[in-house]
Amino acid sequence: MSKILHILASVNETVNVFELKPKRKYTEPKIYTGGIDVSKWSKYSNDQKEKALKKQWFVYFSYRNPKTDLLEKQSFIKGGVNHYKTKEERLEILETYKRNLSRILKDGYNPYDSEDVKSEIMSVKDAFAFGLDLKKNMMNDNSFIRFKSRIKRFEVYLESKGFTHRFITSVDKKVVIDYLNQVLDTSSPRNRNNTRTDIRTMFQLFEDNDIIPSNFVSKLKLLKAPPKRNKSYSEEKLEFIYEYLKNNDPNLLLFVKFVSYNFLRPIEVCRLKVEDINFKEQTLNVKAKNKLVKVKIIPNILMEELSFLANYNPADFIFTPKGGPSDWEATDDNRRDYFTKRFKALKDFFNKKVKDGDKAYFVLGKEYGIYSFRHTFITKIYREMRKTLSPFETKSKLMLITGHDTMVALEKYLRDIDAELPEDYSVLIK
């Protein structure tokens, strides 16, 4: 007996030196491949291969039962692998299961602490269904529709890569990065970032519910994605557009005026119902995203055009494809997209006129949209107020009009739209 072993044994006379080695808690996971050695696959006949593929393939392991103190075989882990008909597909999936199982066993996973292995490791399909079912109750309808759309596209991608019947733990960092790169190639950095955010949110839900060990997506970096900037309209463009809409689409003109005079975002205008207008007090209830209803005054310049709405059903949406108040079964996003396309028809008309050589018109590029009217009129009011007020006084009064929550948010917005311009500095150059 070695000296150190003798010392260890002498600590307690009852110690048996042959029992010093702790018992294994589990056996390393192994793969069952239908009863044949896949390393010699090429040597088997086609009949032998076909017979093996007709059998169930799986990962198996044993774990020491805390009650009997014996190593007991656990439930076989198949995870849908037997839907695949080739040796290569099955091995690729089972190797992933084996690797992930080995990792969680090493990290302390104990099958006797839970009902069974399958409850711990969901398939991709089941995990996504579970996640979407939970998120549906955690998000408003419009946000969930966008979230579900991106997650479903990711799920379709995973299906195309053979993950339909695999465990969710087989979706690793490389798989997500490859998908995000594909999104970037076919769209924009901003859409890639939004997709990454939604996948991160889903995988955080998986982590919180012990479906995956950790949310690796949160470590993936966001790309720089400069926001799309809408330009303000010049006085000439503004007058021309207003005149055109007055003669050709007065309903869309009224829509634009809510953006111009009440400084609403297009999607907020789409939510407006007749009941949101208080004709007596001349106020407007605005439903902002994820916020309580805000009350804004309606300036006289706009109120004068709204008296006809008092005759309609209070529950009617003010702006609909019917050209006037009506019911409209659609999401906020679809409503906004409808009016965006309607305004695009105006832009297309102008741009075609310019292309045909009509100098009375001007080009309206992607930087001009309905949102541009909000920038235009906030700039107009800011510059008009600055003629008699200090910058701080102007911004303090402007906050009440625009609805910005903080001075910092308003100042950033004003910088983004170049509302404040310097005086002529020619004298400084001479």
From TrEMBL:
Residues 228-426 form the Tyr recombinase domain. The keyword DNA-binding applies. Keywords: DNA recombination, DNA-binding. PROSITE patterns: TYR_RECOMBINASE (PS51898). InterPro entries: DNA_brk_join_enz (IPR011010), Integrase-like_cat_sf (IPR013762), Integrase_catalytic (IPR002104), Integrase_recombinase_N (IPR010998). One of its GO terms (biological process) is DNA integration. It comes from the Bacteria. SUPFAM superfamilies: DNA breaking-rejoining enzymes. GO terms for molecular function: DNA binding. This is Phage integrase family protein. It comes from Flavobacterium terrigena. The lineage of its organism: Bacteria, Pseudomonadati, Bacteroidota, Flavobacteriia, Flavobacteriales.
